[in-house]
């Protein structure tokens, strides 16, 4: 029986959890082929090895089903809290990290599927306040980004072909970005004169409108590049992103960041 087949009867997959199941499978396949040196290699996430990145994804799932087993990070910003969770697992072997991830991910994705029926807002601290049903998208975004941008080249150390960047995964990831971007960049966007359009082509494509009033800027690129530049994992020049309009407003949007 596969993990997907072992869900409870009320576990109804959503697009975001389907994306998570797909990337979970891809990550476990990837982990099965890593040697000891691969695990210890520095990833594209500063300060984290390949093993740390996988440990982080396991800890993130643990926060859903067994948060009391994680170190207390009350009062810390999200990214600092994630560092603490990774540091706590640094003594684990690669095999322990994989076993934990394989087990806890099955439980957590099932729990995330049940959020589709929950009609309430969640205060997620510096991540923003979002509908409970959107939380699986945050996890899908995290998996999408870490696997492709931090484990694989050009930022990451692993060669070969990364998992697909398809409609399923990119739609789930960009749904989170679109919701989180205004809340996580409130002060920066307060300096925007007029409005700006982020025009995204490719799987999961759409136009994201920022600001209000007349349009002063249009930024165009594909969706895979968007995930990288909006997480500050690549420049517009590196990713073939083009801006049309006010250069001062373009300079402001280059600083946007979603996590």
At CATH's second level, what is the architecture of the largest domain?
Answer: Up-down Bundle
Across the major sheet, the strand order is 4-3-5-6
Count the DSSP helices.
Answer: 10
pLDDT averaged over residues: 95
N-to-C span: 34 Å
Q: What value does the Rg take, in angstroms? A: 18 Å
Low-pLDDT windows of residues: 1-9
Q: Give the overall silhouette.
A: globular
Helix content: 40-55%
Concise synopsis of the structure shown:
The longest helix is centred in the middle third of the chain and has 20 residues, at 94-113. Strands 4-3-5-6 form a 4-stranded mixed sheet.
Give structural notes.
- This protein is α+β, with helices and mostly antiparallel strands.
- The protein folds into two domains: 4-178, dinb family like domain (Four Helix Bundle (Hemerythrin (Met), subunit A)); 185-253, SCP2 sterol-binding domain (Nonspecific Lipid-transfer Protein, Chain A, 2-Layer Sandwich), CATH 3.30.1050.10.
- It has helices at residues 15-32, 36-40, 50-65, 78-88, 94-113, 135-151, 167-184, 186-189, 223-230, 247-253; strands at 121-123, 129-131, 195-201, 206-211, 215-222, 242-245.
- The strands form two sheets. A four-stranded mixed sheet has the order 4-3-5-6.
- Helix 1 runs antiparallel to helix 5 (94-113), helix 1 runs parallel beside helix 6 (135-151) and helix 3 packs antiparallel against helix 6.
- Residues 1-9 have low confidence and may be disordered.
Give keywords:
single chain; 259 residues; alpha+beta; Four Helix Bundle (Hemerythrin (Met), subunit A); Nonspecific Lipid-transfer Protein, Chain A; 2 domains; 4-stranded mixed sheet; two-stranded antiparallel sheet; globular; disordered N terminus
């Amino acid at each position: 029986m596969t993990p997907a087949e072992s869900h409870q009867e009320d576990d109804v997959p959503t697009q975001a959890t389907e994306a998570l199941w797909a990337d979970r499978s891809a990550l476990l396949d990837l982990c099965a082929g890593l040697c000891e040196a691969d695990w210890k290699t520095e990833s594209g996430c500063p300060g984290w090895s390949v093993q740390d990145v996988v440990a982080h994804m396991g800890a993130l799932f643990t926060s859903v089903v067994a948060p009391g087993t994680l170190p207390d990070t009350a009062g810390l910003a999200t990214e600092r809290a994630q560092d603490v969770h990774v540091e706590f697992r640094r003594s684990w072997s690669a095999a322990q990290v994989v076993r934990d991830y394989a087990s806890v991910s099955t439980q957590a994705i099932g729990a995330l599927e049940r959020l589709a029926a929950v009609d309430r807002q969640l205060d997620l601290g510096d991540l923003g306040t979002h509908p409970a049903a959107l939380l699986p998208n945050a996890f899908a975004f995290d998996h999408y980004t870490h696997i492709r941008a931090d484990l694989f080249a050009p930022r990451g150390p692993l060669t070969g072909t990364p998992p697909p960047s398809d409609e399923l995964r990119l739609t789930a990831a960009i749904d989170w970005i679109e919701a989180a971007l205004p809340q996580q960049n409130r002060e920066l966007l307060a300096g925007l004169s007029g409005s700006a359009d982020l025009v995204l082509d490719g799987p999961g494509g759409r136009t994201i409108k920022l600001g209000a009033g007349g349009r002063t800027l249009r930024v165009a690129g594909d969706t895979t590049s968007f995930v990288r530049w909006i997480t500050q994992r690549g420049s517009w020049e590196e990713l073939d992103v083009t801006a049309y309009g006010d250069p001062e407003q373009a300079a402001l949007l280059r600083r946007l960041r979603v996590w």
